[in-house]
Amino acid sequence: MSHTDYIKSQEELDLLLSRPSAQLLESIRRFSSPLVIVGAGGKIGPTLAVMARRAADAAGCALEVIAVSRFDATAPARAWLEQRGVSTLCCDLLRADSIGQLPESENVIYLAGQKFGTGKSPAATWAVNVVASARLAERYAGARLVALSTANVYALSEVAKGGSVESDPLTPLGEYANSTVGRERVLEFFSLRDGIPLTLLRLCYAVELRYGVLLDIAQKVHGGKSIDLANGYFNCIWQGDANDLILRSFSLAHCPPTIWNLCRPEVFSVRSVGEQFGELLGRPPRFAGSENPNALLCNSRPLCDKLGEPSIPLAPMLRWIADWVRRDGCTWGKPTGFEVRDGKY
Ligand SMILES: NC(=O)c1ccc[n+]([C@@H]2O[C@H](COP(=O)([O-])OP(=O)(O)OC[C@H]3O[C@@H](n4cnc5c(N)ncnc54)[C@H](OP(=O)(O)O)[C@@H]3O)[C@@H](O)[C@H]2O)c1
User: What are 284-314's pLDDT values in tens digits?
Assistant: First the structure.
């Protein structure tokens, strides 16, 4: 498959991130309306919701897509979604009176979560990741659920092992990571108690041009800043591929829940990616420290075998991001903290 040489604008980027695959057009025909996406105001929700809209339109089905979030008045996501044919609804899952406004649905994607700021207000992180998840599962006891989780549920694993597998123990460091174990456990509890078919997806670094681990490394190379090698390996997946797989994973929902790591199948080296950005940007990368034998890693082979390999390999992602950084393209100022090894976010 050939990939566009460069991505010139945010409009072009959003079109790419929300382009549905042929497999998604096939599976979206089986969705009953509406599709509800909760926690849709963040980094993933907008292009995911628009991909569902585009897939339904292209497949000729009358699927309403409803994006639910708190939608802070200053956040542009709400208008952006409405302009693209996605209905929106304001709801704070932590307010009991708000839950009653959630629409009936048989297909719900759950994206709400909190990571950054945990160090300053750990209570808020636990409330969003655990309490809100319990409320969501109680409200949608009659639906199929696809819920996003994270690779942070795992402890660091030996690089030579090729990444944590889904059956590994969930013994991470730090309050954020432990609250995401809590999120999984309460969703699992309600799934088992109420017979809810549930897919849990442990995502390991979605990437695009405005955020993600690749952007973080590219910006350091471009700015002449040193790149910490202590957490020297990582996984990632193009945001558009992640969106496509999230939408297609309703077919995996089951009670008891099924659990899948979600990323490209390769393990990438921070040093090697830094060097490749160095070539693309014409600036030598600067490194600090050296690689440890373990890192935060996932093995996504089971999901790739089940739903197919993600379509965008590393090379075009590096080329697009290097070009974007060189041209000072818009970014969201949300670094991933990929260097973190002590669980403190
Ligand atoms: N992006 C990644 O690379 C990545 C990697 C691993 C795992 N994940 C998981 O994937 C999920 C989505 O990722 P993301 O990057 O889109 O996260 P995000 O940018 O933090 O978005 C999550 C959204 O949830 C909404 N939310 C939070 N509390 C809420 C509440 N009480 N009621 C209603 N909505 C609430 C927020 O939007 P409002 O402010 O509009 O409410 C927030 O923007 C997260 O749960 C995360 O754990 C993402």
Answer: 999 999 999 999 999 999 999 999 999 999 9
Q: Is the CB of residue 162 below 6 angstroms from any atom belonging to ligand 1?
A: no
Please give the distance, rounded to the nearest whole angstrom, from the Cα atom of residue 283 to the centre of ligand 1.
Answer: 34
pLDDT of residue 111: 98
Model pTM above 0.90? yes
Q: Which residues have C-beta within 8 Å of that of residue 227, sequence separation ≥ 6?
A: 217, 220, 221, 270, 271, 274, 285, 286, 287, 288
Pocket perturbation via mutation, ligand 1, pick of 111, 121, 140, 332 by most ligand atoms within 8 A of CB:
111
pLDDT tens digit sequence for 214-258:
999 999 999 999 999 999 999 999 999 999 999 999 999 999 999
Contact between residue 98 and residue 61 where contact means Cβ atoms under 8 Å apart: no
Domain parsing of the chain, residue ranges: 10-155+162-206+235-267+297-312
Asked if the bond preceding 122 is cis, omega within 30° of 0, the reply is no
CATH number of 10-155+162-206+235-267+297-312: 3.40.50.720
Tokens 């200053």 belong to residue: 74
Atom 42 of ligand 1, residue of closest alpha carbon: 42
pLDDT exceeds cutoff 90 at 3: no
Report the candidate in 251, 245, 144, 161 with the shortest Cα–Cα distance to residue 204.
Answer: 245
The response to whether residue 296 sits with its C-beta less than 6 Å from ligand 1 reads: no
Rounded to whole angstroms, how far apart are CA atoms 233 and 204?
A: 12
Give helix 213-223 / helix 270-281 axis angle, nearest 10°.
Answer: 50
Length of the chain: 345
